[in-house]
């Protein structure tokens, strides 16, 4: 519940608790006082005995306000019960019924939502009769369509999930699915909404009583008290304060609590925060230069120079002391499994680590630190290509205009020049008839064409570095090959340096000269891709052995790697791969091997 | 839909467990699967290969009643054909303990008292510790979740398992274990498998026969060795050429 520690959530919780306590003890403690007639002190303002004054019967208004808590809250609860009892079943009905009846129910919910709420409330109230009963039914019914629609939407999402499909294949009936899968998975958001609804019902009922349509004497709730005292507001304003404040605070309390709960449950945790030992003291005591000081073994000709790059989120460090460089015209691959830190490394190179991540170490682009480059320089000297090309393209703009925008914004080109350049670049990524493609929208492109357009967009400047993070993972194999060939060709012809991030060893080995293998946030081996089959690090070896290709021996079981990669919060003190490694020595578990000659291993493979 | 529940062998070829003839799947105006016919023998693993939009997942869903179909399907009844989904993060109810998810597949005949033992047996069948039954899916890795999904499907005692891209959401180091499991289950239980995948290298490793699907039609079908080494169809050839391979400059090893 740590996510609930926001001021508004705490305020809501406090207000609701106070209201509930008062609802229980109010009538006991102040009930007698609130009912006591005192004909000598009627219609009084503030006095020491009656801080908020008295009403026309001489009854103390503070006591009446406190005692009215139970009635006010109770009516709101009743109204919300009506809303829930009608709204949730109505909304859940479509997922239980057959397709035709489901469509009918859905249509009914939609038309109820379109119906004016006030009219609905008044109609229901009229049918139920005057007074408190009519008010409760009216307020309760008015909220039914909204809750029904929410329930239906939530239930639809769950009903479309794979686990419900799996249950259907296993022969589970509609009502079994509703009870077993749908209701438990939508309960949480529903409860939150109902809590917030309580607040709205409280306000609605107070409003009706204030208008004289709700609670009738001798009963009283906050709204009724307001109704009785309101005519005196210009003479003794304090007599209105009690019920008005009570309604406002209690109503706000429920609404705040419900909405904070909803927000807290909707928020997805950013990174797994697991309790872990503070980063290995043994490792720290080794002679590792702190990032940014000491002589840098800089290769002056490298386009990209990364030294001791470390990315952390709170106490979690998914990328640790990563160092590498990329020369002009070279395409370097980074391989790793999910959670190895490869994508975050790519983001850090592009200066795109999301908040609240912190980046330490040095990233030099063309010899200059990334932080010193202006946005305009970054936009033209660095190109990024991501897995989903649709996310990089604005669906509402023509492809040509989007490309041209890069030139007008970053290069100060005129519109005509920019447009010509865009068409030329679309041609360079081998899109047939670039003139016509420039006039089309992204959704008219296939996945492969979109990724080409994104690469063309990167080429609008004269990029020195192209970072491609899983650029073909969403594409078919036949398209993947052509896009990767294009990327390699662009590198070669423009002399830009390239960084290709992929989970697929074969992809990287085919198109990159050099491969960096990442495991648990660190580079464990750096080797020419032609050497992958003779890798020295046991992890690289195991990865190669586990990847089937068209020559794999079918008569034997595939090689597997036991265990799993440690989450970044639980990386052990020694070599992170040691617990899964067949060659691990005692030393591997306690001492982390530093990379020497592109290999971080105490007991490398030899043959 | 006639014959969908017909007994095996009613109209099937010799030894065929499942016979599909003239299968069509339409979603509104979109014709996803066109006149697809194939058979799967007892204990055979048939690979269904194709790119996105080829209709391979539609075939899988149609055979398990999750997509509307026309055509003749003769084979085991509904519970006799079970489906394992691509994404093990989506195919398990996050609010159910593993044991309850797996028990969902058990036949009604299995009494309340026998269930825990049966769940334990199924978990052991997929090489998971029976203790896993008490955990929630979020506590498991992707590979472990996929094993749970397989165990749940096996609970229905299917004779045919349809595996729809079961390894494409998994890491390489885990993928191998799931592929081995599919082959071991066939050997241990005589289970027939329809293995749907876009990855030719994976299909070649697991399957006995391959059917190549393109735009809703089967363009080539045959034994794995023949299709991979000697593809007859141009599309199959282009698929094979596109498979990425580890680059080897020297063949010393």
From TrEMBL, chain A:
Membrane-spanning segments: 73-97
Pfam families in alphabetical order: ABC_tran, BPD_transp_1, oligo_HPY
Bilayer disposition of the protein: Multi-pass membrane protein; Peripheral membrane protein
Keyword terms: ATP-binding, Cell membrane, Membrane, Nucleotide-binding, Transmembrane, Transmembrane helix, Transport
Highest taxon in the source lineage: Bacteria
ABC transporter domain location: 304-545
Database matches in CDD domains: ABC_NikE_OppD_transporters, TM_PBP2
Domain ABC transmembrane type-1: 69-258
InterPro entries per record: AAA+_ATPase (IPR003593), ABC_Ni/Peptide_Import (IPR050388), ABC_transporter-like_ATP-bd (IPR003439), ABC_transporter-like_CS (IPR017871), MetI-like (IPR000515), MetI-like_sf (IPR035906), Oligopep_ABC_C (IPR013563), P-loop_NTPase (IPR027417)
Localization in the cell: Cell membrane; Membrane
Matching SMART domains: AAA (SM00382)
PANTHER family to which the protein is assigned, alphabetical: DIPEPTIDE TRANSPORT ATP-BINDING PROTEIN DPPD, OLIGOPEPTIDE TRANSPORT ATP-BINDING PROTEIN APPD
NCBIfam families membership: oligo_HPY
Family statement: Belongs to the ABC transporter superfamily. Belongs to the binding-protein-dependent transport system permease family.
Protein name (record): Dipeptide/oligopeptide/nickel ABC transporter permease/ATP-binding protein
The species this protein was found in: Actinocorallia libanotica
TrEMBL record, chain B:
Key words, A-Z: ATP-binding, Nucleotide-binding, Transport
CDD domains: ABC_NikE_OppD_transporters (cd03257)
Gene3D superfamilies per the UniProt record, alphabetical: P-loop containing nucleotide triphosphate hydrolases
Residues covered by the ABC transporter domain: 18-240
Family label: Belongs to the ABC transporter superfamily.
Protein known as: ABC transporter domain-containing protein
């Amino acid at each position: 519940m740590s996510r609930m520690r926001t001021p508004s959530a705490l305020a809501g919780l406090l207000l609701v608790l106070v209201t509930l306590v008062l609802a229980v003890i109010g009538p006991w403690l102040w009930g007698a006082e609130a009912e006591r007639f005192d004909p000598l002190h009627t219609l009084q303002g503030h006095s020491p005995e009656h801080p908020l004054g008295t009403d026309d019967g001489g009854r103390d208004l503070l006591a009446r306000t406190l005692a009215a808590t139970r009635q006010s809250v109770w009516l709101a609860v009743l109204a919300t019960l009506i809303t829930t009892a009608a709204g949730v079943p109505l909304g859940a009905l479509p997922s239980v019924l057959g397709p035709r009846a489901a469509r009918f129910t859905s249509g009914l919910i939609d038309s109820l939502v379109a119906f004016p709420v006030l009219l609905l409330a008044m109609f229901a109230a009229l049918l139920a009769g005057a007074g408190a009963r009519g008010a409760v039914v009216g307020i309760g019914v008015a909220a039914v369509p909204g809750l029904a629609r929410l329930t239906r939407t939530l239930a639809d999402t769950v009903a479309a999930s794979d686990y419900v499909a799996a249950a259907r294949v296993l022969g589970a009936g509609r009502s079994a699915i509703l009870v077993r899968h749908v209701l438990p998975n939508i309960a949480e958001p529903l409860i939150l909404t109902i809590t917030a609804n309580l607040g709205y019902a409280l306000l609605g009922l107070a409003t009706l009583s204030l208008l004289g349509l709700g609670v009738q004497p001798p009963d009283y709730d906050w709204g009724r008290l307001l109704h009785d005292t309101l005519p005196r507001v210009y003479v003794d304003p304090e007599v209105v304060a009690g019920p008005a404040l009570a309604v406002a605070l209690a109503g706000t309390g429920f609404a705040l609590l419900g909405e904070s709960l909803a927000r807290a449950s909707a928020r997805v945790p950013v990174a797994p925060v697991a309790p872990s030992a503070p980063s290995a003291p043994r490792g720290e005591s080794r002679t590792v230069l702190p990032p940014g000081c000491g002589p840098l073994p800089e290769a002056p000709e490298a386009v990209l120079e990364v030294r001791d790059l470390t990315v952390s989120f709170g106490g979690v460090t998914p990328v640790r002391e990563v160092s590498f460089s990329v020369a002009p015209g070279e395409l370097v691959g980074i391989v790793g499994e999910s959670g190895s830190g490869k994508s975050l490394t790519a983001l850090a190179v592009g200066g795109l680590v999301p908040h609240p991540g912190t980046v330490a170490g040095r990233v030099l682009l063309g010899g200059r630190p990334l932080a010193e480059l202006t946005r305009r320089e970054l936009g033209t000297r660095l190109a990024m290509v991501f897995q989903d090309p649709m996310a990089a393209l604005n669906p509402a703009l023509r492809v040509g205009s989007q490309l041209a925008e890069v030139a007008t914004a970053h290069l100060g080109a005129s519109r005509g020049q920019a447009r010509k350049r865009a068409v030329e670049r679309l041609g360079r990524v081998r899109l047939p008839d670039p003139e016509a493609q420039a006039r089309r929208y992204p959704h008219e492109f296939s996945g492969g064409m979109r990724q080409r357009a994104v690469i063309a967009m990167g080429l609008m400047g004269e990029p020195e570095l192209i970072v491609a993070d899983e650029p073909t993972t969403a594409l078919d194999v036949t398209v993947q090959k052509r896009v990767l060939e294009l990327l390699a060709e662009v590198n070669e012809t423009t002399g830009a340096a390239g960084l290709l991030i992929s989970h697929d060893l074969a992809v990287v080995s085919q198109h990159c000269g050099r491969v960096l293998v990442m495991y648990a946030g660190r580079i464990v081996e750096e080797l020419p891709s032609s050497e992958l089959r003779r890798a020295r690090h046991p992890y690289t070896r195991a990865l190669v052995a586990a990847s089937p290709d068209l020559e794999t021996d079918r008569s034997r079981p595939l090689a597997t790697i036991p265990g799993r990669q440690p989450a970044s919060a639980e990386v052990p003190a020694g070599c992170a791969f040691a617990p899964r490694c067949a060659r691990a020595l005692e030393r591997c578990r306690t001492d982390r091997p530093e990379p020497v000659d592109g290999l971080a291993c105490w007991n490398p493979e030899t043959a | 839909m006639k014959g969908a529940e017909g007994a095996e062998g009613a109209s099937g070829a010799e030894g065929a467990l499942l016979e599909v003839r003239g299968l069509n799947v339409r979603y509104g105006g979109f014709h996803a699967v066109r006149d697809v016919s194939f058979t799967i023998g007892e204990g055979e693993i048939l690979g269904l290969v194709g790119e996105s939009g080829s209709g391979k997942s539609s075939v899988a869903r149609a055979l398990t009643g999750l997509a509307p179909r026309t055509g003749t399907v003769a084979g085991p009844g509904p519970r006799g054909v079970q489906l394992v989904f691509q994404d093990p993060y989506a195919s398990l109810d996050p609010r159910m303990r593993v044991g309850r998810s797996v028990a969902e597949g058990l036949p009604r005949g299995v009494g309340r008292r026998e269930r825990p033992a049966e769940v334990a047996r199924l978990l052991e069948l997929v090489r998971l510790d029976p203790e896993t039954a008490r955990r929630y899916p979020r506590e498991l890795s992707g590979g472990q979740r996929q094993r749970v999904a397989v165990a749940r499907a096996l609970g229905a005692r299917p004779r045919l398992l349809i595996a729809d891209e079961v390894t494409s959401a998994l890491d390489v180091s885990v993928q191998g274990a799931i592929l081995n499991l599919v082959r071991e289950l066939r050997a241990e239980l005589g289970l027939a498998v329809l293995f749907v995948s876009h990855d030719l290298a994976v299909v070649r490793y697991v399957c006995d026969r391959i059917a190549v699907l393109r735009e809703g039609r089967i363009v080539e079908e045959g034994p794995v060795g023949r299709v991979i080494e000697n593809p007859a169809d141009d599309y199959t050839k282009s698929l094979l050429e596109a498979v990425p391979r580890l680059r080897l400059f020297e063949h010393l090893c």
